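Running log. JK asked me to keep both predictions on one page so they can be read side by side. First protein, sequence followed by its C-alpha cells:
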Amino acid sequence: MMVMGPGPDTRGNTRVQTEPRLVIPAPEEITAEWLTEALGNHADWSGVEITEVRPEPLAKGVGMMSDLARLHISHTGDHGLPRTVIAKGSAKDLTNRQVAEAFDLYAREVAFFREVAELTTARTPRCWYLDINDDHDSIILMEDLQRHMPGDQEVGCTADQARACARELARLHGALWNQVDHPRFDAVPLHRSVTHGDIYLRMLPDAWDRVLDIFGDAVPDRLAAAKDEFCAALVPLQEWITAEPRTIVHGDFRMGNLLFCDEAGEPPVVIVDWQGDLRAKGIQDLAYLLSQSVETELRRLHERSLVEVYCEELAAVGVDYAVEQAWADYQKACCYLWTYAVMIAGTLDMVNDAGVRWMRKMVERSSAAFMDFDGFRYL
C-alpha cells in the first residue's frame, strides 16, 4: 500500500525544498550568489558556496516549451558534488509560452517533482531546487545526465529502446495504479478536465486545419476529412482514457523527453520533462511512444510484444492488467492520440527545421496507426 506522507523516495532523494522563495531568473542569467542560496536549501548542497557560474544555453528550438542551460560551476571544498547542473526555466518564445500557460505546464512539472517523483521507482532526474511564481516564471535545478543521450524524435525509437521504455513505464504506473484520487495529486489534472481536456475542445478544430495546411500530404484523405466526426467524439474518448484503471502518466512520452544510455551500471532510460503529467490510463504513455516515436513498420512488428512486456512488468509490481485488455486499450489509445499529433503540430511555433521534421514524422506515424487500427470505429 502506498504511503502518502512525505519522506525520501526510493532513490534516496530527500523532498525538494523551495524555501525561502527567491526571485526567479532565466537560466542563462543565474549568478553564483543566487545559485548558492538556491542549492543551499537542499541537504546535498548545504554549506557549499558556488564561486563561479558559466551558463551554456541548450536545446534552442528543440526544448520548445522551456529554456534550458547547462551551468558549469565552481564551488568550495571537495564534496563529491557535480561541476555541472541543468537549469530549466519558462520559455521566452511567446507562442509556445502561451500554450504552456494555457495548459499550466510549468506548475504541473513543479507539482510532479514536489509530490509524485518520490513515490515511484521510475528513473527521473534528481532535482535540487524548483519554484514557480504567479506569472508562470519557473525554475528547476536538476542533475546533468551527461552519459545519457537524448532520443531523436525524427529518427525514432529502436526496438530495444522501446522495450526499456515499456519496463520503465510499468514502474512509473504500477506504483500509483488506481491510487491517484487523493488530494496530494490535485495539481496533476485528470485527462478529462477543465485544465486539460476542455482546452482541446477549443483548440483542436483550428489546429486540425493548420496541420492539413502544413502536413496535409502526410494525412490519409479519409482521416483528413473526418475533422467534425473526430471532434464530436473527443469528450467520450477523453472520458474513456481518464476512467479507471488510472494512474500518473507522463503525458508527453516521446523521444524528445527520454534520455538513453547503454553503459553498464547506468539506467537504460531516464524520463525527463514532466510538464504534461496527467491522471489517466497508463497505456496512454506506451501508445503515445509507439504510435508517434517509432517508425511505422517497426511499430507493427513489435507493438504486441511490447504491450506484453508492459503487462509482465506491471505484474512484477503487483498489478493485474490482462494482456488482451491492455491490447484493446492500446489500440484505442493510439487512435485517440491522433489528437496529440494534431495539437502539437497545429499549435506550436516551428522555430527551426528540426522541429518541422519531427512534427512531420509524428503526423505521419500517428495517422498510420489510426488507420491501422480503424480509428473510425471509436468515433
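And the second, directly underneath as requested:
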Amino acid sequence: MTPGVRPLIAGNWKMHGTVAEAAALAGAVRDGAVGGLPADLLVCPTFLHVAGVAALLAGSPVAVGAQDCHAAAKGAHTGDVAAPMLRDAGATHVILGHSERRADHGETDATVRAKAEAAAAAGLTPIVCVGETEAERLAGRAEAVVEAQLAGSLPDGFAGVVAPAGGAGIIAYEPVWAIGTGRTPTEADIAAIHGTIRARLAARFGAAGQGMRILYGGSMKPGNARAILALPNVDGGLVGGASLVAADFLAIARAAG
C-alpha cells in the first residue's frame, strides 16, 4: 500500500441481482461493516439499483457508485444515464473504462476521458480502469498499453477532482485476462504495473499523483487479498465476483489491515 493512503475496497456487481437480491447484499455488507474496517467500502450496483441501495446504505460507512455514465449531462441518448442523474440517485463514485465496456461497447480512451470529465463536473469520483489483454502481455507490451491508456483516458483535472468522497480520481488496474477467470498475475507483475502507474501519475500530476489511489482488480478474493494489498502502490481492490458474496467482500476488506 501507499503510506498515508487509506485503502478502498470497491465491489463491481456488474449485471447481477434483482431488487430484493441487491437489497439483501447491500444490507449484509452494511451490517458487516459495523464496528469499523481497515478500508473504505464502495459497492457499485446496476443503474436500476443505485437509488435503492443508496437509500438502504444512507448513514452507513459504505458508499455507492455506478458502473458507467454518459459524457453528456442530458440529451437524446436513449438507454444511457447521465452523471448528474447518478449523483441525484445517491452515487458518489462511478467506474469508467472497464475492459468490458471497452470491448463490448467499443469505448476508446477519448470516450473514457470525456466521461471522467462529466463525472467530476457532476460531483462524482471517477474510477478509471486500465489493463492489458493476454496477447499484449505475452508480446511484452503490458506496461506500454497501460501507459497509453492512462495518457488518453485521464483528463487534466483528474488529480484535483472535488467530489463528496474527497480526494482525487482513482485508477483501477485490471489485467483483462485475469477478470473473472480465477487467474491472477504474479505479485511481482502486479507490483511492476502499479509502480509504472504511480510513476506516470507523479510525472503528470506531481505531488498529487503520489497520493492517488491505485486499485488492483482481476480475480481478487479472500485467499489472495492480503498478499496483493500488501504490495507497494496497491491501495485497494476493484472486486468483481467476490463482491457478490458479502462474507467474501468483507474478508477482503479486513485483509487490508
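Observation for JK regarding the second prediction: DSSP finds eleven helices and eight strands in the chain.
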